Structures are given as C-alpha cells and as structure tokens.
Amino acid sequence: MQRDVRATLSSALRLRLLAGAASVALASIGSPVWAQDGSEVVVTAPGPDGLTQDGAYIESDAVTREGDVITAIGETERVVARFREATLRAGRVSYDLRQGIAAAERDVEFTDPEGNVIFASLLELDSDLRAGVAVDFATRFRNGASLMAATAVRRSENVNELNYAIFTPCPICDDEGNPKTPSISIQAEKVVQDEDLRAVLYRNAVFKVGGLPVLYLPFFAHPDPTVERASGFLVPRPSYDEGRGFSVEVPYLQVISPSEDWLISPQINTDVAPFLNLQWRRRFSDGTVVLRGGYTYERNFGNFDNDADGSVDENVKFGDRTHRSYFLGHGRFDPQGPWRWGFTAERTSDKTLFDRYDISDPYQDNGLYYGDQRRLISQVYAERQTARSYLSVAAFTMQSLRVKEFSPVTPALNVFESDGELPFVAPLIEARWEPDGPVMGGRLRLRGTAAALYREDFVGSPVLRPVIVPPGSTLGLPGIDSRRVSTQAEWRRALISPIGVRWEPFVDLRADFYSVGDLPPAMGLENDAITRSRATAGVDVSYPLIRRMGPGADLILEPMAQLSISSDSDLDIRIPNEDSQTLELDESALFRVDRFPGYDLYEGGLRFTAGARATLRWDEGRQASLFVGRSLRDADEDAFLVPVPDAPGQLYDPTGLAADASDWVVQASFSPSDRIRGWGHAMIDSSGDVRRGEIAVDGRWGRRNLASLSYIVDRSNPLAGPNNRNYEFVQLSGQQFVFGNWGVAGSGIMDMERDLITRSEVGLLFDDDCLRFEIGWRRDNTVVRPSGPSEGIYVRLNLATFGGTGYGQGDRR
Q1: HEC string of 580-615?
Q2: Which range, of 297-306, 542-551, 783-792, averages the lowest pLDDT?
Q3: DSSP output for 6-27
Q4: Contact indicator for 82, 51 with CB cutoff of 8 Å
Q5: How many CB atoms within 10 Å of residue 93?
Q6: In 3-state terms, what secondary structure has residue 211?
Q7: What is the pLDDT of residues 678-715, one digit of tens each?
Q8: What is the pLDDT of residues 368-384, one digit of tens each?
Q9: Is the dihedral of CA 650, 654, 660, 663 positive or negative?
Q10: DSSP secondary structure string, 444-506?
C-alpha cells in the first residue's frame, strides 16, 4: 500500500527551478485525493487560481518529506503556498497529507478565500482552513477592522478565544505604512469570537480614544465584523429641543432571521413623556415590507398665546394628555413576470408631531406616486411592464401637514391645510403601447389614462377657473368631484439629411372625456359631461455642429427649432385643473407637444419654438454648456392666468406660457475641473426680469475639504401680501480641516424675503477613516415649528463597524 502511494506521489510531485529557487507543484496533496485502495480520485475542475479543489502550489527554496509530512523552507524569501483559493506565506510551512493539517512559522501571512488576512509568528490550520492555534495573532477583516492578540486558540467548531487582545475598526498604519495609534480601540484581557452567536465577547474591556482610556467595562459584546446584521444596541442619538428638553434616542436592533428584524428606539426626554419608535422589516422572496410607527401619551407643547393680553408663553404644555402616534409603512413586490405591486400607508395623529419629536426621515418616496414635503400619501398600486407596453393601476389618499395660514402671534396658532381639501384618487390608470416595428417608417405610441378624484371640502382657485368661483364665503359648499378618460396617439419619424440636419415630423391626436359633479350653484349645473379633442402636427429640426478648438478640446453647437399647429384649445371653464397647476419650464419641457405635466391644461394654435445649445469640452471630461430658448404662439392664452392670492380681482401668469411669447429658458452647467461643478436654470420674462431661477456650485479642495452654495428664487407673483408665496433663499454648507483630522463644519439657510437666517449651525469636526464626530451649536427659526425658534447643542457621531447617530435634524428634513 505504501509503495502504491509513493509511486503515485512521484508522478504528481514535480520539482523545477525558478530564478534560483525551487518551485513544487503538488497536484492533489490532501488525503481525499488518494483512496485507501490506491486508486485515483477524479480531478475536479480548476478554480480561479488554476488549481483543483484538492490541488496546491508551493514555492520555496527547499522541500523535504518525512512520511506523510511535507516541509517547505524559505531561506532567502518566504514560502508561498496556494491551495483551495487561499494563500499562505511564511518562513517555514509543513503539511500533513493524511490529516490535512498545515503549520507555518516565522512572519506568517494567511489570506482566506473571503479576503480576510491573518498574521502570526506561529499558525496551525486544520483541514477546513481554520486557525487552530496562533501566536502573536493579528487579523484584518474585509471591512478594514483589525483584531490582535498575544495568543489565539480555536476551542471548538464555532468558538475562537483570544488572550490579551485589541480590536479596532480603524487603520493601524498610515499612508506610508508606518504604525499609528488607532482613533478608537477596545483592549481586553480575553476576547471570544462566537460564530453561533455571531458576536465578539470581551472580558475586562477598556475603551480607548486616541490611545487614551475613556471607559472600562467588565463585560462587553458587539457583532462580529464579518456579520452584516446582528442584534444589539446601536449608537445613541442625543439632541436638545427647547420643548422636549434634553433627549436621547437609544435604538436596539433585534434580528429575527436573515430576512427579518425589529428596531426598537425609545426617545427619552427630560421635559416631556418618552416617545417610543418601532420599525419592522421583512424581506420576502419577491419583495420587502417596512413598517414604522411611534407612540406617546402627552399634552401638546410649544409657544402658546395663553394670556388675556395676548402675550406668548414660551415652551409650555397646553391641552389635554392624549394618545399621539404616527405610522409609516411601505411594501414593494416584484415577482417573476411582467407584474409588480406595492403599497404605502402614512398617517400621523398631529400635524406637528414629526417636528416636535424630531422623527427621522418621515417624508420618503417609496411608492409609485410621491407625496411632497409635508404631505403623507397612502396608496396601493400595481404595474405591468413589457418591452412594448406599460400599465399601472393605483388609488391613493393624502394627509397634509402644510401650514395654510401662518399666525403672526405664535406658530402654535398656525392654521393647517385641511385634509378634506385634498382629493381621494381612485382609480388612477395609465397605459402605453407601441407596435413591434415601425409604422410608416416611424414610431407609433398609443396612450390611455383614466382618473377619478373626490373631495370633501370646496376648493376654489387654482383648481377652479376664476370666473366660476362664487364670490363671498364658500363655507359649506361640497368639494367638486371629477372623472376623466383620455386617449392619445403619437407618431414620430427621424430623418437625417445628407448635410446632417435632423428632421422629425410628428402627429399627435388626443381626446378627453370629463364627468364633473358638485359644481358651484352659480353655474346652474350640479353634474355635467364634457368632451374635447386636439390634433397637432409639426416638425422638430436640429443641426448639431462640432468644431475642434485645439488638442483635446471641441465645441458643439446645436441649434434646434419646432414648428407645430394644433386645433384651437378647448379649455372649458367647468373642467377643474387638478394635474397642471405647476409647470417647470426647462429645456426638455420647452420642446414637448404637451408642456404641462398633466392633461387638464394644454396649448393649441400655431406655435414656433427655437433654441440653441453650446457645449465646450476639454481635458477629458471638463465641460461647460449653455442653452437659451423661447416659444412663440399666434395668440395669448388667458386660461392660464390665475388670481393673485392677495388680490383675487387681479390675474397673473405662474406658468410663463400665457402670453404670445413665452418666458426665456436659460440653462447652464459647468465643471472646469474634477473638483468644481455647477449648474443653473432660469425663466426670464419679456422685460428681462427673472421669474424663477436656481443656481448651485459645489467645490472640493484638499482631500476632504468641501463647500456647496445654492440660490433659488421665485418672483412669479407680482403683488406683495401675506399670501404671497414668492421666495428667495441662499443655502451654504461646507467643512474645512485645519489640523490633521480636526476641522470646522457649518451650514446655513438665509430667507432673503424675510431677511432671516432660518437654519444655521456651526461646529467642531473630527473625521478619520473610522470615526466622525461633530459637536456644535444649531438654531432653527422656521415658522412651522410649534415651539417657535429653537437653539441648542447638537452632537453627531458615526463609528465604523458600530454604526452612527445619523445626521442632525436640519439635514433629515
């Protein structure tokens, strides 16, 4: 039997010289390769390193064998061994063929198949490539964390024990490879890594920051760094609010299974009752469900006009104690096939609950349709999509947290938008279909939509046309209900002339059917049915030109124009404007047949639109571009005008399209380097005044210094007054490192209309590869807050491996 093994081994063990060193290829060195009867086992397919599962490659200065033990010694360089997608480097390596045990000495470095690296002066590996015994042990995990110990012993299949150990999630070497003190570390007399618990357990643990001890615990535990999720406390989030007092939120994550967990996060407050936040997440084979909620039993609090003389008491409790809660849930399922579906469920008991208790990220976009800032949406929807078709069916309702009238006395007396003024939409259907192949040489697209909206409370302008809004009080009038079905067919073909001019003739046909109920009594109608249609034909023309401006630089000029003619618009005054109240006129919208985002408003007649884009590119990715365009129409469209909120007898144009010449559209972007970028957009009326505009610039310098500046303005309402919603804001944020990892950070938002800094903060910052800590002063002057202006200290902490507190109240909203 021994002779058979030697004979076979001699054919598998080959010795060859490589640059003066001996390189030994061991094909099938493990005991499973050789059967007890001497027969050969079938060789498996090679892995990524070219070796079979039981094959190995050893490079060394000398190789000897005694019985079943092969020993490789590196005299000038370390032995290099590759086997089972792992790599072992050491001054001396021995391998027992029969037991499958490897031992290494002197400057040992072992990299397992998952990328984790172990360093030691002495290391023994079992047949599963697990470290059995290690002296002067150190390991680096894939996420950059390090664990070091004087000795490491594998006590059982799932338990590793380390003595006199140090753990840190931070780098232990600088950029030049020199040792450095980690920012944070845990030193312990004994550390046990329990793979069943998926945790690292410490005895007599000492926490150090910058090498200085700051905390001692006789026992401490945290998840194994290789574990994505594990039960345990997350980093607390402290905060301060003049209404709540000092607060700390202590989140605890309870992992139920690899696909399910709970997050229990109570907020403890010094001045009001605690607030309990809960979150449940579950991942299914074809989808995910996330449910959040919170609860407290407390009175309201904030600034309140509580005295007969009208003076304001600051930060007082008022009203009765009652149940206060919120619920935010969403789910999305995408099974195999063309169908997918989902839901959102969002409600709160108080209009200002999120503000008063600093709830994290309450306004999220999770469904098919989005509520905007300070509006919650609950919906169910289903979608079907193929390469040539799309269908969606949805129903939703909304809850508004917006302020309708700001109180001049105290924010606690603000009047909020009524939920009855928002529609319940069911159903909302959208469908598109394209035939497989060209039609008359072009692309044909068919669309269909249907919507039904129901309101409880009456809403006038801008939903209703000014001429049908009843004069005087509308209290008690029912909300107007409307139902719409629209069909549309669009045909478009692209043609390129011999000189490079691009022509796109198009035809667009559309028909709408409306059923409107509960119209104002002044109309003399309670319910009515309206039909209308529109036919459009036109052509888009563009002629892109390019010119080389030198080595690595070119200039692209693209003049473009559109000529279209439509049947006269039929904007019946009985049709409510539900989906076209806002219009952002930009480059893409300027050349659309339907510039409005919805169906209730549209343009007719003869239109000519022209624009040009110039783009300069240089030095591999640096560029600057400018677009200027405008649209002309054969006649004004007075139906786009709406009443001025502070003077209902006067009308103004919020769209920029009501006159026979639209606003000028100007857009620009620039990135002169990889550290600076910016963009801007503006609507400029015929007199040269900016109706709306926005510009933003981001800059970076050094490795981590950065700043961002943005400016936004809306001057579309021409008349000043308490209901004027024009705005002008400047926002600035940035961070500058002053000495090493220490720096300053700050941000601010300036309301130019009220000459007031609405939010601001400035703080001291420490940031390295594993720790970010900020402490500073913050002030909030927003008028929505029920407690009025608030200021105080903020603390933010983010730790590698352990998680973070997140970013502050101002950033989450």
Answers
A1: CCCCCCCHHHHCCCCCCCCCCCCCCEEEEEEEEEEE
A2: 783-792
A3: HHHHHHHEEEEEETTEEEEEES
A4: yes
A5: 27
A6: coil
A7: 999 999 998 899 999 999 999 999 888 999 999 999 99
A8: 998 777 899 999 999 99
A9: positive
A10: EEEEEEEEEEE-SB---TTTS-GGGSPSS--TTPBPPEEEEEEEEEEEE--EE-TTS-EEEEE
Peptide bond into 722 cis (omega under 30): no
Check residue 177 and give left, alpha or beta (phi > 0: left; psi -120 to 50: alpha).
left
* Distance, CA of 343 to CA of 363 (rounded, Å): 15
Over the stretch 169-196, which tens digit does the pLDDT of each residue have?
A: 787 777 777 778 888 888 999 988 787 7
Q: How far is CA 264 from the centre of its chain?
A: 23
Burial class (CB in 10 A: 0-12, 13-18, 19+), 36: exposed
Task: Give the span between the Cα atoms of 51 and 81, in whole angstroms.
Answer: 12
Separation between Cα atoms, residue 376 and residue 298, nearest integer Å: 23
| Burial class, 97, CB count within 10 angstroms (exposed 0-12 / middle 13-18 / buried 19+) | buried
Residue 84 main-chain phi, psi, to 5 deg: 50, 45
Classify strands 117-125 and 131-140 as parallel, antiparallel or unpaired: antiparallel
Q: CA 612, CA 806: separation in Å to the nearest integer?
A: 44
| pLDDT, averaged across the chain | 83
Q: Residue 810 gets which letter from DSSP?
A: H
Spell out the residues 6+ positions from residue 475 whose beta carbon is closer than 8 angstroms to its own. none
Numbers of helices and strands, H then E, in the chain: 4, 51
- What is the Cα–Cα distance from 575 to 529, expressed in whole angstroms? 10
Token digits of residue 445: 């697209």
Between the ranges 62-66, 117-121, 153-157, 263-267, where is the mean pLDDT highest? 263-267
Per-residue CA distances from 701 to 566, 673, 697, 706 (Å): 53, 11, 13, 6
Q: Is-contact 541 561, C-beta < 8 A?
A: yes
> What HEC string does 348-415 produce?
ECCCCHHHHCCCCCCCCCCCCCCCCCCEEEEEEEEEEECCCEEEEEEEEEEEECCEEECCCCCHHHCE
Q: Kindly list the distances between the CA atom of residue 760 and the CA atoms of 356, 754, 776, in Å, as whole numbers in the listed order.
A: 18, 15, 11
Whether the per-residue pLDDT at 230 is higher than 70: the answer is yes
The pLDDT tens digits of the residues spanning 1-40 come to 333 333 222 222 322 222 222 222 222 223 333 333 333 4
Looking at residue 4, what is its pLDDT?
35
Kindly state the average pLDDT of the residues 507-522: 89
Q: What is the DSSP letter of 419?
A: G
Of the CA atoms within 13 Å of residue 588, those in its CB half-sphere come to: 3
| CB-based contact 410:420 (threshold 8 Å) | no
Q: How far apart, in whole angstroms, are the C-alpha atoms of residue 337 and residue 490?
A: 28
Highest mean pLDDT among 471-475, 570-574, 722-726: 570-574
* Whole-Å CA distances, 654 to 79, 253, 691, 715, 753: 76, 49, 9, 9, 19
Question: Reduced to 3 DSSP states, what percent helix, strand and coil does the chain have, rounded to the nearest 5?
Answer: 5, 60, 35
